Amino acid sequence: MLRFLTGIIFCISLILFFSVYISPEFFPYAGILTLLIPPLILVNALIFVLLVLAKRRLALLPLLAIILGWRFIGVTFQLHPHAENPEGLSILSYNVHLLSYTKKGEDPNAVTQNIIKWLKDNPSDIKCFQEFYQDYTTPSQNAIKALATDTGYEYSYQVIVGNPTKRSYGMVIFSKYPIINEGKVFDTKQTNGVIYADIKVDKDTVRIYNAHLESMSISSEGLSNLDGIKENYRETLGKLKRGQVSRAAQLSILQEHMGNSPYANILVGDFNDVPYSYTYFSLRKIMKNAFETAGRGFGFTYNKILFFLRIDNIFYDDILQVERFKTHKEVDYSDHYPISATFTWEKPLRKIVAEEE
């Protein structure tokens, strides 16, 4: 019986470990099944210990499963030393929840002013925000004025919904360095999309992608107790499946656009997907992840009931080196935590010699 159970768990482990390379467009539930990878690794570890104590050769199976699944441990937890104030190009990414994330009893205007002050005081060279709200009609809500006009930053603001001259929300990239080109990869006319900006850094140019992929649209409050889980599990599974399929399609568009970039790419944002996903591992094949290279701890970025999610990321081309990565858990002005990274490089960043020379 023990041999049978160990063999079954080993086979399931192999299937799940390789399912991250299957597009949800072909098998919609693949992305849902991968959520079982972390507990499955723990189960294999427990079986391995028990079999070792029992002096059974069968322990080789869970050991092999752990070895094959080791990369999932690396995307989950890191112990890199924390570098203080390194030199280089610093980038901040933050889903700011329309600058209006309030808790019970809080004054919405005070919350808006607090988060704008923190964003303004943050010294990062480049700041990328998702779910950004802009109101030109109300001075206290004019975030572009506070974060760009008054501080000397250039900006690329791509409106998704609203009136561009009055009230709107979309995605924005602020930069201390000149923005020489900008554009929108796609948007969903809701809150999701991807934008980019080519930024001139001294003699080099880097392309920054700011992404907000399809949301999971799951109410964490409805999953906060057993009754809520029972009532919402079918709806939740449906949303997870639809989100996985949508993100896979969006990822194809994004990858094609990045492949045509003449410059080194840095991709930041809210990916609405965990590290055990097709989205994450597809990007991981062509780019490095700053958390894996320089992060520390679990790096959870979600600031709600489902606190154990890391869905915000910074990916980068391997011509760059990341000197520091940080999840700003001390900043709770949104349902996400900000993340930041600092980059250096030795070789010219352009993939193609620009004609400007």
Automatic annotation (TrEMBL):
Keywords: DNA damage, DNA repair, Endonuclease, Hydrolase, Magnesium, Membrane, Metal-binding, Nuclease, Transmembrane, Transmembrane helix. Residues 92-336 form the Endonuclease/exonuclease/phosphatase domain. GO terms for molecular function: endonuclease activity. Its cofactor is Mg(2+); Mn(2+). It comes from the Bacteria. The chain crosses the membrane at residues 5-23, 29-53, 60-79. PANTHER family: TRAF AND TNF RECEPTOR-ASSOCIATED PROTEIN, TYROSYL-DNA PHOSPHODIESTERASE 2. This is Endonuclease/exonuclease/phosphatase family protein. It comes from Belliella marina.
